[in-house]
Fold these 3 entries.
Entry 1:
Amino acid sequence: MKKTKIVELPETNEILSRSNKLILSRYSATLVENKIMALSFKRVKLNKNGNPAVVFTTNELRKLTGVRGNGFYDQLKIAAAGLMNKMVYMEDEQAQSFSFINLIQKAEYREGNFTVVFTNESKALLYDLKSNFTSMSIDTLFSFKTNHAYRLYEILKVHEYKIGDNNKPVEIVYPLSDLKLQLNCINTEGKKVKIELMKPHPNYDKIVNDLDTEKKFESWYEFKRRVLEKAIKEINQTTELNISYAPIRTGRGGKTTAVRFYLQRKVVEKINTVKSKETTRSEMVGKVKEIIKDVNLSRKDCISLLKASNNNLDKIETAYELAKKQEDIVNFVAWMISAIKNEYEQPVEVVEGSQEKAERVKKIKESIDERKEVLAEEIWNKFREKENFNDFVKKVEEETGLSFYFFDSMFPAYEKNQRYVQWMEKN
């Protein structure tokens, strides 16, 4: 391992301290949701009802999350819905204990303010942090562009205290299945996954290999290339940590079953250049043309791609590889810029030869699905007010052997409605 010097980084304006149990819990969340949660944890205070709550303006949230454009309101609404459905799972194997906690009681946008109210059960994770907690810079958390890098930084940052004054690399081993869960590569909102997580000793291999229906990054090569290496690269470029890794292989076939991380503090060095900006720009334009050899790009086109990627040639190359697989590209440079900014990972759908039409159709479908979900929730809330609802609760608990709380948290509203209607028909 290459040795690196320890450097004192400048203090940030805000430091967030969180329980290690909370950081290392397994849950599904988008990057925007994670950033909203981080900001909420930092600003949380008890409201007049005694619940932990935080209120901040949409403009402040827009600035801190880096989300721009007219679509921010829709993204905020989707993120709020996601926060409401988040159940955090925590396990202490040594104490043979586990728990599921709903963190958010309400997420509301009204009159220019966005309000997040936490549940009473979450107080122990938000306050009384006398031990077993980790502090992180809010600026660092909000600088991440990908969710995988955000989560990997969080779970490795917990172990930073183990690094001695000599900055000798600390080794942290994660079983591959658990790592995929921690990095949000597995949808923990799935019914079968939730049931397995409820067991005293969940089988993470079973969750990843058998129960997860999405099957993202299934092979080690795909996970390594599209998740792990990209996340490590972003962490090493933007944070105070230096991370490398090595796969741990077992069995006769040498299958990767775990990942060993090497964690150090790093030096942040400023690179002084004696070349003029114009000379550097010319070199970068030349490199873009080397990457995109099959298209006759003008200097202006290359500069546009460099601006869109923030001079990141890897992003330009990734977008170009996708462009080779994409059908019906009308404006090559415009498509490349969109692919870079939106971080496309697969070819984009088109409708009648138009990517724009496809995106509009997609938004309409998402809007319809969202309305269906809202309607289903409204119906479910009306069912809960029925006089015979307590009888239904008892029946569900008898059939499942679980508290009704878990049934209510696990299943989407439309499934719960179907279950209630079927019960009504029989009774």
Note: The chain has three domains: 15-265, 277-342, 355-426.
Entry 2:
Amino acid sequence: MNLVLTVLEIVAPVFLLASAGFSWKKLGFDYPVEFVTRLAMTFAVPCLIFTALMQTEIDPAALSTMTIATFVSYAVIGLLAWGLIRVTGSDRRTFLAPTIFGNTGNLGLPLAVFAFGEAGLGYAIVIFAIMAVLSFTVGIRMVSDDASIKRVLREPMIWATLAGALFLWQGWQTPRWLTNSLELAGQLAIPLMLFTLGVAVARLTPRGVGRAMLLSLAKLLLCVGAAVGVGLAFGLEDVAFAVLVVQMATPVAVTAYLLAERYRADADAVAGYVVISTLMSVLSLPVLLYFLL
């Protein structure tokens, strides 16, 4: 019973804040999603990433192992997802990237910090940063031919990750007044991302619910299976293993819908995928955490 309550304490803030954003939009209140997303991803999240990496007490060697394990996990998931898309006869441009890349930012980071503390956040940030790089290169290439390394180099999150890793490796620290300022800015990230997730889901017009249910369940099973296999193969310690599994099990990100809309894939079908996989995660993520804690 105590473990059930612990899981509830972890997931309740995440889903309640996302639900608040969903309700906000449904009640007709204004919410500038594009502006808030830009604020979060170019300011608050980079500050969170940099300070979390700079101050983490995780052994840099363990973070390096997590980095390699994450790349291998995405490679395995990519192959399995490609097979799934072929078997189900789904459109590759529409469904392949959303099946591979989950919502490791809006959902993954809050769950990691609530469930596993600062160590969990450090590992989760590594996965999130790798996912961002792959999404803006390989992911866009799956939807369009417009992928470019320049797009990645324009992302503040990437530079924050590199700077944080450098400071961690060298044992450097920013002056206390600057650290406090960056930490305060970084504290905006998680509530902003969760609330915005709810608003964004409320704005979607889903289609193809039957296919979305099938793909969402298959995505969950193949991503969890791949993460568990890779985690065991790399001998990840308990927190790192759990964070890898949870991050890979996160549902389709709203950004998948935005990319589909921008590059003229079937955006409404992706919207259905986002909504169904997010709803499914309300049950699947607490169950996963129950077994991982």
Note: The chain has a mean pLDDT of 89.
Entry 3:
Amino acid sequence: MRVIKKAEERRNEILDVADELFGQKGFDGTSTNDILEKVGIARGTLYHHFKSKEDIMDALIERYSIRLLETAEAIAMDKDIPVVDRIIRVVMSLNISGGGSQEIMEHIHRPQNALMHQKIQKVIINGVPPILTKIICEGIEQDLFNTPYPYECMEMIVVYANTIFDDDMVNMTNEEQVSRIQAFVFNVERLLGVESGSLTYMMKMFDGGDRNSNE
């Protein structure tokens, strides 16, 4: 007997299968036939939900983006967490430097998924600064920070962190990474108008950063 599924359920099933196949074979290495066979549907059913394989990828990016930004927003709104800790947790949850959402980010960082990676970067660069800005404005009210440009500061920080600390963008030795982490924290302190050394423990966001600070 033929099983008839609701449109949203079928759409999510297609996305789940595409996500799995893209992870195994890459976007370019996965055909629509591969997706059809694994889901067990006719081509017309697939095209009823998605116009093309690229359309499927865009829907996956949207799903990842919603998940990432909702997590970041939830952390940003948690007033029980101190302001600076919230900033660190937001950055780590988005895995800009190797934190949460590991399966998603490992999948996106595979060489065969370069286009997906690029689109996620765009989401982070556009979606994260407004979330972090809310925390910075709260910190300004508490006299923790002193900057007339909270959004611009967060934009600079996110763009730099999302580019320089992305292994796909910049190749660094361990020593070079440690130096950049130290410089990053040094300059974040100045952007936010805080005392030198007061944000050193932000280095725990980065691989190797907390090890170096404990030496």
Note: The chain has ten helices and no strands.
